Every structure is written in C-alpha cells, then in structure tokens.
Amino acid sequence: MQLGFLGMAQTLAAQWLCDANVYDDDFETPAISFGLDWLVLALLANTSVFVFIERVWPHDPDQKTLRAAWRLDLV
User: Fold this and answer.
1) pTM for this entry
2) For residue range 13-38, what is the model confidence (pLDDT) as tens digits?
3) Total domains present in the chain
C-alpha cells in the first residue's frame, strides 16, 4: 500500500515538474505500424502454441482442451 502511494506521488510530481501538454505536430504516418492486427496475430499464435502444449501434455487429463465454459475464459 505504501509503494502504491509512493508511485502515485512520483507520477504527480513528474507531471507537475514537466510540461504535461502534448503538442500535435504534423508528421508523416509510418509505412509500418503495430496496431490491432498485431494484437490479433499474437493472440492467434499464443492460442495455437498453448492449445498444442495442453493437448500434448495435459495438466488435467480428464478435462477437455476447450471446456464447456470456454467463452468465460475469453473475458
């Protein structure tokens, strides 16, 4: 709890000491950007790796890979 207050105090001090305004200069959009598409690709890659591991070496052999409440796991 004390470290949380320390972190909040340091954040407020940094905002107070520095200029908190963000200036929007004209800039060219990059040719390659890491956005939502990379998030989706990473999710699919992680899913395929961990589903494979769970099928090869199951933690609980009696449980299916995708159990009945798998939609709850996505939340």
Assistant:
1) 0.44
2) 888 887 667 677 777 777 777 777 88
3) 1
